[in-house]
Amino acid sequence: MSDLPRSALPRVVIVGAGGHAKVVIEALRAAGFPPPLGLVDPHPPGPTVMGVTVLGGDEMLPRLKAEGAEAAVVALGGNALRLRVGDHLVSMGYALPVLLHPAAQISPSARVAEGAVVMARACIGPDATLGRLAIVNTNAVVEHDNVIGSGAHVAPGCALAGNVTLGDRALLGVGSAVRPGITIGADAVVGAGSAVVRDVPAGARVGGAPAMPLRR
Ligand SMILES: CC(C)(COP(=O)(O)OP(=O)(O)OC[C@H]1O[C@@H](n2cnc3c(N)ncnc32)[C@H](O)[C@@H]1OP(=O)(O)O)[C@@H](O)C(=O)NCCC(=O)NCCS
């Protein structure tokens, strides 16, 4: 948690070694976490990512736990997968710390659940709620009273006006804007650069300005 003294921040295992892991590694460093124990990924891009060693595949997780690892960050972009992996990690006894980039602006009245990450220059408004393992990515604005579901992803540069609800595992594509009071259902996908001006049903795929249903 960002409000813990730096000495209390845990060494984490990072699960996932793709592009999102790079952003997570930089945020961990900026937030003052100690150097990560390493990365776990069955198909890593190389032996290290941003100077962090890849330790192996998922089979490493129980071993690392037995050797004293306490906490993990799930750096997987796929929303449903991130939640499943997070649940599995919790069942193994890992804690999922909140990761708040110090260059993010977080209202003191916002509530942030375990495993959620907020990247640089994001802004979280008063009484907003971020669910478990949610991502609010670089330079996104999540205004007052928003409810961001578990495993949901607000991609870079999005702007959500007040009282927006983004359902569990939903993706709001990069650079999208959402009108006040809108509800976007669970597992919905909103395409990049969209303007969401009416509610989006659960599981729908929409895009454009104004956002309309997309071909499957
Ligand atoms: C919406 C999205 C998921 C669709 O991807 P896809 O399943 O590969 O679909 P396609 O690219 O085949 O596009 C299907 C149709 O939707 C249209 N479309 C795709 N993305 C669109 C968008 N953002 N806005 C408007 N229309 C879009 C395509 O033009 C195509 O139209 P057509 O049927 O008339 O040819 C993808 O385009 C997108 O915007 N992803 C957001 C990614 C993102 O922001 N990730 C966060 C990373 S940090």
UniProtKB/TrEMBL annotation:
<feature type="active site" description="Proton acceptor">
    <location>
        <position position="144"/>
    </location>
</feature>
<dbReference type="InterPro" id="IPR050179">
    <property type="entry name" value="Trans_hexapeptide_repeat"/>
</dbReference>
<protein>
    <submittedName>
        <fullName>UDP-perosamine 4-acetyltransferase</fullName>
    </submittedName>
</protein>
<dbReference type="InterPro" id="IPR041561">
    <property type="entry name" value="PglD_N"/>
</dbReference>
<dbReference type="InterPro" id="IPR020019">
    <property type="entry name" value="AcTrfase_PglD-like"/>
</dbReference>
<dbReference type="InterPro" id="IPR011004">
    <property type="entry name" value="Trimer_LpxA-like_sf"/>
</dbReference>
<dbReference type="InterPro" id="IPR018357">
    <property type="entry name" value="Hexapep_transf_CS"/>
</dbReference>
<feature type="domain" description="PglD N-terminal">
    <location>
        <begin position="11"/>
        <end position="85"/>
    </location>
</feature>
<dbReference type="InterPro" id="IPR001451">
    <property type="entry name" value="Hexapep"/>
</dbReference>
<feature type="binding site">
    <location>
        <position position="153"/>
    </location>
    <ligand>
        <name>acetyl-CoA</name>
    </ligand>
</feature>
<feature type="site" description="Increases basicity of active site His">
    <location>
        <position position="145"/>
    </location>
</feature>
<keyword id="KW-0677">Repeat</keyword>
<keyword id="KW-0808">Transferase</keyword>
<dbReference type="GO" id="GO:0016746">
    <property type="term" value="F:acyltransferase activity"/>
</dbReference>
<dbReference type="Pfam" id="PF14602">
    <property type="entry name" value="Hexapep_2"/>
</dbReference>
<keyword id="KW-0012">Acyltransferase</keyword>
<feature type="binding site">
    <location>
        <position position="77"/>
    </location>
    <ligand>
        <name>substrate</name>
    </ligand>
</feature>
<comment type="similarity">
    <text>Belongs to the transferase hexapeptide repeat family.</text>
</comment>
<dbReference type="Pfam" id="PF17836">
    <property type="entry name" value="PglD_N"/>
</dbReference>
